[in-house]
């Protein structure tokens, strides 16, 4: 059979001129970091509980009652601060006596109780670790500290990696 289209040019995919032109075009793939730039612009909705809290806050703030209550609290705070300033300025001896009484009756016993509790807790913990770990509680505590710091550092490293946000389960539901 004879070819009926002898003067028609070859198809585009066979034309070398088109191949040379396509080779001069820049690459069509996205540059590195393109995904991170796109995801930085994507609006992720807040959780439902936070949206509802914002709506309630806006509703309460729009009411006149809220502003009356806020003004009353501000006035009460200012009045009590002014009264305390006047009391300190006019009766320094009374303030000193009150301070000594507070330290003697509350602060010193509370401090002694806290120190006693912490020392008892530490000795109990030290005894427990000493019985469980054969090479001593001090070395075990140092090893535990190093292990905890290593895990915390690794966790911070993982959360600060770019692009990790896109792979979290929360974003997979969109």
Topology, pairings included?
Layout: H1 16-24, H2 34-41, H3 48-62, H4 64-90, H5 92-132, H6 137-159, H7 169-172
Structure commentary:
About 75% of the residues lie in helices and about 0% in strands. It has about 170 residues and is an all-alpha fold. It has a domain at about 45-90. The radius of gyration is 36 Å and the shape is flat. The mean pLDDT is about 80.
Keywords:
174 residues; single chain; flat; mainly alpha; 7 helices
Please state roughly what percent of the residues sit in beta strands, choosing from under 5%, 5-15%, 15-25%, 25-35%, 35-45% or over 45%: under 5%
Please provide the count of β strands.
Answer: 0
Q: What distance lies between the first and last C-alpha atoms, to the nearest angstrom?
A: 59 Å
Radius of gyration: 36 Å
Number of helices: 7
Q: Regarding quaternary structure, how should these chains be classified? A: single chain
Biggest beta sheet summary: none
Instruction: Classify the helix fraction into a percent range.
Output: over 70%
Shape: flat
Give the uncertain stretches in residue-range form: none
Mean pLDDT: 78
Return the structural class.
mainly alpha
Query: What order do the SSEs take from the amino end to the carboxyl end, as H and E?
Result: HHHHHHH
